[in-house]
Structures are given as structure tokens and as C-alpha cells.
Write a structure and sequence with these properties.
The protein is α/β, with parallel strands linked by helices. It is built from ten helices and twelve strands. Strand 8, helix 7 (156-166) and strand 9 (172-176) form a beta-alpha-beta unit. The structure holds NADP nicotinamide-adenine-dinucleotide phosphate. NADP(+) binds at residues 129-133, 153-158, 219, 243.
Length: 283
Amino acid sequence: MTTPARYAVVGRPIAHSLSPRIHAAFARETGIALTYTAIEAAPEEFEAVLAAFVAEGGRGLNVTLPHKERAFALCAEATPRARAAGAANTLTWTGGGWHGDNTDGAGLVRDLTERRRHDLRGRRCLLLGAGGAARGVAPLLLDAGVSELIVVNRTAERADALCLALGEPARARARYWDDLDALGDFGMIVNATSLGREQSRVGLPFGLVAPGHCLAVDLSYGEAAVPFLAWARAAGCADAVDGLGMLVEQAAESFQRWHGVRPDTGPVYAALRARADALATAD
Ligand SMILES: NC(=O)c1ccc[n+]([C@@H]2O[C@H](COP(=O)([O-])OP(=O)(O)OC[C@H]3O[C@@H](n4cnc5c(N)ncnc54)[C@H](OP(=O)(O)O)[C@@H]3O)[C@@H](O)[C@H]2O)c1
């Protein structure tokens, strides 16, 4: 009997990760034999963990917080979307080095446009955050046709660096968090910060929301998404979406890269959504 090919997600913290469950479900659905585990790694352990994974026959890794930028820097080759992000969430061992991809942005856009049927074209978009997730989604939001992408981050220099890397000064510009009140209203607001993990209120101005048609998206899910989604509903957003669908879709993109098959994401998403709803009701 052949040994199943080995895959994993690496990050810190990692115990909460749904990726092993998602990839196991995709594997059952497509009939592909694999193992997919979660590996906890501190920043100073990251390279040693990757080397050990390869030595044990590992084929591919998902990379999550806080390693995505480091992962990209280690890649011998990378897709244009990983290069645009300067961050990788999907590593494939080629035999001589790592190939890097970033599936976060494609996962987000697929969830919003295909599952939820939102048209992103022409929307004025506010992106809160400039960390690994923001870097992953920003180029794909531009590709999806937003009219403007205003990037605001607590640490202003990171928003500047992200906009510089995007290379579209006419559409993508950085602004200061303290100036949020003066930015006008938006047809789409994406929360790519992790502030919901630390704070129970987001405290954003309601004037950011274009009345009647603003789409609010938090890349987080579960408890961490509650403060932003509560703010979005109170501010009158037409739809308020968490990052669970993006999580499933970015995993499907990684799965396709590794196995050449695109899984049906519907059943896994439905199961995770039911589980999340049950947990929220139990609180
Ligand atoms: N659904 C999915 O598939 C998916 C995929 C990736 C990420 N995510 C989620 O996206 C979020 C961000 O992840 P990441 O990888 O980008 O993390 P990261 O690289 O650590 O970046 C964190 C971001 O949040 C900002 N931030 C943190 N605390 C803040 C606060 N109190 N007030 C304002 N801004 C604050 C940081 O600003 P500074 O630069 O000033 O520190 C930075 O922009 C996480 O919640 C993660 O779970 C979801």
C-alpha cells in the first residue's frame, strides 16, 4: 500500500485552524489519499519546521499568521498574485525549492461574487489593515474592478508600503486611520485587521457606509468577526459577511494547485456554517 501524500498548515496559534477538517473533506469528496495536519511554529522555528516537513516527505503547506511574508521570501518561484501580495499562503515543494502562491484574494472574490452573487465592479472600497491578509486580497480586489481602493492601517507605513507594491496610484491610495471621518462613504468595506480578536467594539464612523448598497466583509470568522459585523449592521450596510466562505474557497484553490482537481466547496461550507451558527446560538 502506498503512503498517502503529506500536507499541513503551519502557523501560530494553530490549534483553532479549520484547514485540516476542510482538506480532509475535500479529499473524501474527490477520492484523493492524503494526510493534512496542523503544525504550530514560532517565527524563529519556521525555517526548521519547513526543512523537517520536507525531510519527512511533505509535499505542500498552507501558511497562516504570522508567517505569510516570511514564506514568500523563502520561495524560489512564485505566482504573480503571490508576488503582488509579497506574501504566500500556499507552498508546494518542487524537489529543489518552494513554489509560493497566495490564494486568499481569489478565495475572497469567489465567495463574494460566486456564492453570494455580489458585483464588486465600480465599488469604492475601503480596506482596513495592511498585514498578510490585506496584502493577499488587495490585488484581487483591484482585479475584480473596484473603482478605488483606500487602504487604512493603524501603522500608516504598512498601508503606504502596500499601496506602493500594488503599483496603481490612480486607484489604490493609503490614508490615515485618524482621518477616517473625512474619507466619504464606501460601497464596500473590508476588515482585514485582527482587531476583533482584541476589542469588543470597532468604533468606526457610520459615515463610511454608503446608504443602501454597502457590502461589509470581515476576513475573520467566529467570535473575532462579531464586533465588525455588529458595527456594519448598525451602520446600515446592505450585507455583512464573515470570512468563513473565503476560508473554504482559499482552501479549494490550494487543493486544486496541489491535486489538479477543484473540489465542490458547497457541502463543506454548509457544514462549517451550521457548526458556526450552532456555536453562536450556544453562547
Ligand atoms: N478567512 C480567511 O480565509 C482568512 C485568511 C487570512 C486571514 N484572515 C483573518 O484576517 C485577519 C488578519 O490576518 P493577517 O494575517 O493579516 O494578520 P497580520 O499580518 O498580523 O495583520 C494584522 C492587521 O491587523 C491590524 N491590527 C491588529 N490589531 C489592531 C487594532 N487593535 N486596531 C487596529 N488595527 C489592528 C494590524 O495593524 P498594524 O500593522 O498596525 O499592526 C494589521 O494590519 C485575522 O483575523 C485572520 O484570521 C482570514
